[in-house]
Automatic annotation (TrEMBL):
InterPro entries attached to this UniProt entry: DUF559, Restrct_endonuc-II-like
First and last residue of the signal peptide: none
Protein name stated in the entry: Endonuclease domain-containing protein
Taxonomic superkingdom: Bacteria
Domain called DUF559: residue spans: 227-287
Molecular function via GO: endonuclease activity
Species for this entry: Blastococcus deserti
Keywords: Endonuclease, Hydrolase, Nuclease
Transmembrane segments: none
Taxonomic classification: Bacteria, Bacillati, Actinomycetota, Actinomycetes, Geodermatophilales
């Protein structure tokens, strides 16, 4: 007879749990546990995020495989990959493992010095070092999301401009080096959210001057606020308002703040999550406010 459900916490292989008498196949198939991948299950009370799926991937990865890119970045203060995004795993070129559905396998050389082992919720997690993680992010992810991930890692102190420049120099001429060299100069650790990064990159790619992230606005020596993005010479501000900005308290607080900024001679463009779905339109609004034409980026 299978033991109680409390005996199975964390992430586990269904076949092993059945063999050990911890659960029956009927219980696994009934939906009592969350299915992550083929034969990989999780306690349904665990938070459903990308790290949960990455921990599940660890159970089926061969010894030479390592979590990388956006999946490793979830342990380096850049948890932007969603639970439905494939887990990124790197394996040596001669490794035949392809992984189950939901895992993206990238074949590439990786040295022992580029691998870390961390203890996460009693699970040992193998992942690439921050610098090697930055390499996979810049070379495998779309440009704007890659910059957002690097922004967060720089802000948290896991990588910096000097270490990224060193990788660019050491790997010059290798596969992906041109893409890496294109992505890294766009990274800016002053950005404090993924939406800020996406808007900033979209503006730069459209030929607009790069805005200043987290700009401190003052008037006559008085602090008026720290804003997401600013073009100080044009006295233009762009603010991204997440979901928490739309409760009544935040609305009143934001309105008073914007009134002070406008009274001091600043123009304010307010963006929401809906604007991220049509960044071209948002950038056009910004360009019109700056009085500048758009160019292809």
């Amino acid at each position: 007879m299978a033991r109680s459900l409390q005996a199975l916490s964390g992430v586990f292989l269904g076949s092993h749990a059945v063999a050990d008498g911890l659960v029956t196949r009927t219980q696994l198939q009934s939906g009592l546990y969350r299915r992550l991948f083929q034969d990989v299950y999780a306690d349904p009370h665990l938070a459903v995020d990308h790290r949960l799926y990455a921990r599940g991937a660890m159970l089926v990865m061969p010894p030479a495989a390592v979590l990388a890119g956006r999946s490793a970045a979830a342990w380096f203060d850049a948890p932007f990959a969603g639970s439905t995004d494939p887990v990124l795993v790197v394996v040596p070129p001669d490794c035949p493992w392809r992984g189950p559905r939901g895992i993206r396998v990238h074949r590439t050389d990786i040295g022992p010095a580029e691998v870390l082992t961390l203890d996460d919720s009693d699970d040992l997690v193998r992942l690439t070092t921050p610098l090697r993680t930055a390499w996979e992010i810049a070379t495998l992810e779309p440009l704007a999301p890659a910059v957002a991930l690097l922004d967060a890692m720089i802000r948290a102190g896991h990588v910096d401009d000097g270490s990224l420049a060193r990788i660019a120099r050491d790997r010059r001429g290798q596969w992906g080096s041109r893409r890496f060299a294109r992505v890294v100069p766009l990274a800016d650790g002053r950005s404090e959210s993924r939406p800020e990064s996406l808007v900033r990159v979209a503006c730069v790619r459209a030929g607009l001057p790069a805005p200043v992230p987290q700009f401190v606005v003052t008037a006559n020596g008085q602090f008026l606020g720290r804003v997401d993005l600013a073009w100080p010479e044009a006295r233009l501000i762009v603010e991204y308002e997440g979901a928490h900005h739309f409760d009544e308290l935040h609305i009143r607080r934001d309105d008073r703040r914007y009134e002070r900024l406008v009274a001091a001679g600043w123009r304010v463009i307010r963006l929401s999550w809906a604007d991220l779905r049509d960044l071209a339109d948002a950038v056009s609004r910004i360009a019109r406010a700056l009085g500048l034409p758009l160019t292809a980026g």
